[in-house]
UniProtKB/TrEMBL annotation:
Pathway: Purine metabolism; 7-cyano-7-deazaguanine biosynthesis
Annotated protein name in UniProt: 6-carboxy-5,6,7,8-tetrahydropterin synthase
Cofactor(s), by name: Zn(2+)
Superkingdom assignment: Bacteria
Any GO MF annotation of the entry: 6-carboxytetrahydropterin synthase activity
Metal-binding among keywords: yes
Enzyme Commission numbers on file: 4.-.-.-
Organism field: Phocaeicola coprocola
A Pfam family matched in the record: PTPS
Family of this protein: Belongs to the PTPS family. QueD subfamily.
Cofactor, free-text remark: Binds 1 zinc ion per subunit.
């Protein structure tokens, strides 16, 4: 089994729609640290699980320096963002989204 891991940092803003009062309902930003894990039993014709550049393009090109509420069709919590990223990248099985030093959400496919 082959595994590749791509870690990247993006800057993006969001506001959350919550069922309780919270300061996170106001527009605010993070320097998100995103780690994408991809796995495959076989390598492609280029000898890769997935090109690191393709992972970067799938994440950074779409999310970096954007208001996530404007581009994502769901409440942009770290948990929802992790799941969305996992579904954007081929062979992805796990994504970690860290919105601050103490706050990380992890999504893993079963």
């Amino acid at each position: 089994m082959y595994t590749v891991i791509k870690r990247m940092e993006i800057s993006a803003s969001h506001s959350l729609k919550l069922s309780y009062p919270s300061k996170c309902e106001k527009l605010h930003g993070h320097n998100w640290i995103i780690t994408v894990y991809c796995r495959s039993k076989e390598l492609d014709e280029n000898g890769m699980v997935v090109d690191f550049t393709h992972i970067k393009q799938a994440v950074e090109k779409q999310l970096d320096h954007n208001n996530l509420n404007d581009i994502l069709p769901f409440n942009p919590t770290a948990e929802n963002i992790a799941c969305w990223i996992c579904n954007q990248v081929p062979h992805c099985f796990k994504v970690e989204v860290k919105e601050s030093e103490g706050n990380t959400a992890i999504y893993e496919k079963d």
